[in-house]
Design goal:
The protein is built from seven helices and eight strands; from the N terminus they run E-E-E-H-E-H-H-E-H-E-H-E-H-E-H. It is α/β, with parallel strands linked by helices. The relative contact order is 0.14. The model has no long low-confidence stretch (mean pLDDT about 95).
Length: about 230
């Protein structure tokens, strides 16, 4: 359904970006932020799914500044490689990858109001985007690793946020989720009896029920804020 294009960031770097256009006039746009595994088949499928719901979906490669063309699977070796790439991107001087996400938002805005959704590391970047970037109407981080640390909790979102977490997620302890929820009563927090990565049907942690419920809630949220 989709194809790759290049978007130019503020500093001139060209970012590979997967895009998927609905068959009818878009009712808005959704920026999709990858896990640590790149804009792989799973992220492309998510983008295609939002396009099928009537949104122009834009998935920038948030690892291009460290290594272009990342497309990993979910093996132990892939996990190690993805974690190293995340560390490299996190070590970039500000604004780092946020300028690439801003370029994606700016591009997506031609289709209407823009929401953003991200998974795993993309969930963390989605939270940061909601707090720092311009041009968004709403944001939905899924199990964003790091979102519930004190440094990230201290941020203030500029737009409505819905956040999804799993009770069995050892990367994001439930006491930190509760601290996040207490600090941000304006954020709509949903917790599922599920593990990290529960939305990904290519991972052993996939939870079909939690994924379906979270998707339904996310689509309702986007419908409310994007039209």
């Amino acid at each position: 359904m989709g194809n790759f294009i290049e978007l130019q960031s503020a500093d001139g770097l060209r970012i590979q970006t997967y895009t998927a256009m609905p068959t009818t006039k878009p009712k808005g746009a959704v920026v999709v932020l990858q896990e640590i595994f790149g804009v792989n088949s799973h992220i492309q499928a998510i983008a295609d799914g939002f396009a099928a719901e009537g949104y122009y979906a834009v998935a920038p490669s948030t690892f291009d500044r460290a290594k272009p063309g990342v497309d990993l699977g979910y093996s132990t070796e892939d996990m190690t490689a993805g974690m190293a790439l995340k560390a490299a991107v996190e070590a970039l001087p500000a604004p780092g990858v946020l300028q690439d996400i801003q370029a994606a938002i700016r591009h997506a805005a031609d289709a209407g109001p823009v929401g953003i959704v991200g998974y795993c590391y993309g969930g963390l970047l989605t939270w940061r985007a909601a707090c720092e970037l311009e041009g968004l109407a709403c944001a939905v981080p899924y199990y964003g690793g790091g979102v519930t640390t004190p440094e990230e909790i201290a941020r203030k979102p500029k737009v409505p946020v819905m956040a999804h977490f799993g009770t069995q997620d050892h990367w994001i302890p439930m006491d930190t989720v509760q601290a996040f929820e207490k600090a941000h009563p304006e954020v709509e927090v949903h917790v599922y009896e599920a593990n990290h990565g529960f939305n990904c049907d290519q991972r052993g942690s996939w939870n079909a029920g939690a994924a379906a419920t979270a998707r339904e809630r996310t689509l309702y949220f986007f419908g409310k804020h994007l039209g």
